Amino acid sequence: VTPLVDCQVHPLVPSIEPLLERMDPNWVDRFRGTGFALPGGIPHPGRPPIAPPRPPAEAPAELAAALAPETERAILIPTQSFPSPGWCDVSMNNVLAAALNDEIAEVWLSTDERFRLAAVVSAQDPGAAADEIARQTANPRVVAIATSLLDLNLGGGHYEPIFAALAAAGLPLIVHPGGTEGFAIGAPRLGGIGPKGALERFTLLPQVAQANIASVIYDGVFLRYPELKIVFAGFGFDWAQSLLWRADSEWRNLRIDVPWLTEAPGAFFARNVRLVLDGNSAAPRQQQEAIVRTIPAGSLLFGSDLPFAAVEPEATLACVPEEIRAAATTDNAYETFGERLRAQQPALG
Amino acid sequence: VTPDRLPVGKVEDFRLNEFRTVEIPGGSIGVVRTERGFFAIRNRCPHQGAELCRGNVTSTLEPGEGPFSYRPGMDHMVVRCPWHRWEFAIDSGIAVGQITTKKVVTYAVEVEGDAVFVNRKSKAAMAAARKHAGARA
Fold first, then answer.
1. What is the dihedral of CA B48, B51, B52, B55, to 10 degrees?
2. In this structure, what DSSP letter does residue B132 have?
3. Closest residue of A to B59, CA-based?
4. Could you tell me the pTM of the whole model?
5. What tens digit of pLDDT does each residue of A257-299 get?
6. Taking CB atoms and an 8 Å limit, are A252 and B86 in contact across chains?
7. Edge-to-edge strand order for the sheet containing B37-42?
8. What are the start-end ranges of the E strands in A114-255?
9. For the segment A85-117, what is each residue's pLDDT rounded down to a tens digit?
10. Which of A35, A303, B34, B39 stands the most exposed, by the fewest C-beta atoms within 10 Å?
11. Interchain pair B61, A261: CB under 8 A
């Protein structure tokens, strides 16, 4: 059995109640007073509705049981604070993210020793996010920091405190859609048209990844932080070759616009950017392998997207050529998430 | 004058940093006078075949201390293609910024009195010939 590192698993906390227990009482009043409810996850096209586990206390065990048997590690990416770019109360987002991190760390990680956590931060308040990153670094089972994005270029100055904190902690960043792209003020816009609904949002969502990958490369984030890895999860991969071809081609023509770049954009992508293959590619199955071959082999990670997974890992990985299968299933993940992922950790609690 | 030496004009015919071209079979050679002397390159961009010497000799921008930091470099030793702005060093023919490994062909220029000549054999061909002759001797 080929071992697997599952880089994209979403723990869904069944209700806000356990999170309220982790908050300052004043914040509890505020969350209750606003009738706050946790989103149950972003509806995915063509999937069954997301049903909360019954009883709620079994949610972590249900997720662990759903992992493919060959899974060596599973990185939990909590997404329930990710619609926050559309919220006005920035402090509330910080409190929610911290409570989510504490709940997942203490309750979910103790359920299965394969679980690791990508602790979440709110990008709206990069100073507070940096503090949360520093706090999370103390937990050896935190292997990354995850966030949704704002309507600001990822390579721009706004995110600088987050990058500095990540570099100090030696943690990669996982970027995941927040569910409000194109819908909420403050969330990334989607270009040209709409979106009027989920159809247009899902159609155009790769623009967010493309624009922000271009931004971090051209704006020189990886010159300042050469060791930093940024993982784009939940955006698919079938748009990447277009971005890579254009980025290198236009750079050859317009290098004079970014004279600080010492290498082709594709070289930075291969070294610093990772994409999660999650079985959600829209490309016809017989075309997927050709597309995967155009992406640097070291940039490919596997993610099941549980509990939203539509296909088995083997079906997702069918597009990965045999010679890079081990890279995509395990090696790249251990290289990207490093010793924290590699280390055997006893279950907490 | 050997068959390989082509007259390009008088020194005073050359405006600083502007190419004059001389026809050769299958194309042309651009010859330019800069403050560092005369240089000659094939008037053909290795990218898509544009007439490279329609671009003037210029400088470029080099990396500075990190992002958004840069400084002028290669002072008037660069030709920038008018089609896609690919840049090449006029002395070596090497692409600026490592955007490609393709090179522009370069030629030797000789000045005798006020007459300027370019050798239609490329520098690379002449170097190879010298190496070959040395090996035979």
1. -130
2. H
3. A256
4. 0.91
5. 999 999 999 999 999 999 999 988 888 888 999 999 999 999 9
6. yes
7. B5-10, B115-122, B106-112, B37-42, B27-34, B19-24
8. 115-120, 142-147, 173-175, 230-232
9. 777 788 999 999 999 999 999 999 999 999 999
10. A35
11. no
